[in-house]
């Protein structure tokens, strides 16, 4: 797959979402997932170790995916979708929710590559 973005392979943007125990039990997680599925392909991840859900990664196949946590409002759900579709202003507005912990970002990237490889192998 090389350095290409996963979004190039898919017709719709790909967003990874933590479905670990703490993140998945939040009501906001279900709302976020429903909102994302209207515009994006959602990849479920095991716990990424942030536990400040919902945790979402935009362009998860990139070398450094952009990971956001504590996305609980309706406005933030709209901003995540806009950011996935490429709007720079949305990414700027979400910057305060961005996660820079390299361990978590690496975990997101690794899990997403594995899950998408498995998905494409079965189709």
Give a description of the structure:
The chain is of the alpha+beta class and 123 residues long. It has six helices and five strands, in the order αβααβββααβα. It has helices at residues 6-9, 21-24, 27-37, 74-84, 88-93, 102-122, and strands spanning 14-18, 41-45, 56-58, 66-68, 98-99. Strands 2-1-3-4-5 form a five-stranded mixed β-sheet, with helices on both faces. Helix 3 (27-37) packs parallel to helix 4 (74-84). The model is unreliable at 1-10 (pLDDT under 50).
What is the topological layout?
Blueprint: H1 6-9, E1 14-18, H2 21-24, H3 27-37, E2 41-45, E3 56-58, E4 66-68, H4 74-84, H5 88-93, E5 98-99, H6 102-122
Parallel strand pairs: 1-2
Antiparallel strand pairs: 1-3, 3-4, 4-5
Helix pairs in contact: 3-4
Number of helices: 6
Give the overall shape: globular
Determine Rg (CA atoms, Å): 13 Å
How many β-strands, per DSSP?
5
Strand content is 5-15%
Tell me the series of helices and strands, N- to C-terminal: HEHHEEEHHEH
- For the record, give the distance between the C-alpha atoms at the N and C termini, rounded to a whole number: 16 Å
Low-confidence residue ranges: 1-10
Secondary structure: helix percent: 40-55%
Residue-averaged pLDDT, rounded? 83
| Major beta sheet summary | 5 strands, mixed
- Overall structural class, as computed from helix and strand content, comes to alpha+beta
- Strand ordering within the main sheet: 2-1-3-4-5
Short recap of the structure:
The chain is α+β, with helices and mostly antiparallel strands. 46% of the residues lie in helices and 15% in strands.
